[in-house]
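To: structure desk
From: M.T.
Subject: fold request, one chain
Message: Could you run this one when you get a chance? Sequence is below, nothing fancy, just the single chain.
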Amino acid sequence: MKYTKLAGMDVSKICLGCMSFGSVDSGFNNWALPEDESHAIIKRAVEAGINFFDTANIYSFGSSEEFLGRALKKYAKRDEIVVATKVFNPMKDAQNTRGLSRKTILHEVDNSLKRLGLDYIDLYVTHRWDYNVPIEETMSALHDIIKMGKVRYIGASSMFAWQLQKAQFVAEKHNWTKFVSVQNHYNLIYREDEREMIPMCLDQNIQGTPYSPLASGRLSHGTNSDSQRTKTDDVQKQKYQATEQEDQIIIDRVAETAKNHGVSPSQIALAWTLHKPFVASPVMGVTKMPHLEDAINAVDISLSTEEINYLEEMYVPHKMVGPIPPTPNWVHGADVKRR
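Reply: Done. Structure tokens follow.
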């Protein structure tokens, strides 16, 4: 495994995403892996040198954090690993259980720590932008949980570039902690953040931990997979179904390049991501052990400038998917689609 710096931390070039781990009974998704299968993948990841793990309070409504915490206690040394989790989405159908208010952040960070079985979280990530709470309140609360010793660094997930800039400005103005990373939607068939977000992050030294580097599997097996996730994941369809025809050209080129290298398409798609200066470590979710092995081996693949251009040149603009757009009254809906 190769490593890179994320803020002051050493992280593996592959981050194991844990959205696929958790109790099916939670109702979050019906393709989640039970605890024994989740532990087997986490154990192998640790053995291979992966030391960066990403989850969220909303994933399987807490059981993903629980599964991850118990596995890391068995297979890893706390001082050697980096654990990221997130806050924003509603944990139940009740008041004060969602968003980025001071009340919610202080409550949810304690819940995540308890489920993970940790004394501190290495990277605490805001899962989306909260239009209902002043950014001053959010950044102040995030700064406070760092000062309390509950969190080491803070990151942001899908948002617009102007929102990230506003958050960083507010933090700098008040001498509060700033975001060190952005976990955004980014892969070969979705590159909209190359317009504003990524150039801004490069300029401001904010690092990327992009999610969906394989476009929910489309870059590894195309659009006709019969996997449980492909058949049942409505969010995947929301993200990619509208541009299937245009994206298929890129998917075919990924497969062609993979054949030339004698590797799998998923390894080429990951290798492309790893060649981007913005990317510190892509978040790779897996449901099968071969998926993990592909990710581990992708860090050693080198793509030429010509190959990168060949993979990129047929890209067409896509509708923004990830950041929550503002409504006329600046209040987002109660049923925002979760990734």
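Reply (cont.): The beta strands are 3-6, 9-12, 15-17, 52-54, 82-87, 121-126, 151-157, 181-183, 207-208, 283-285. Let me know if you need anything else for the meeting.
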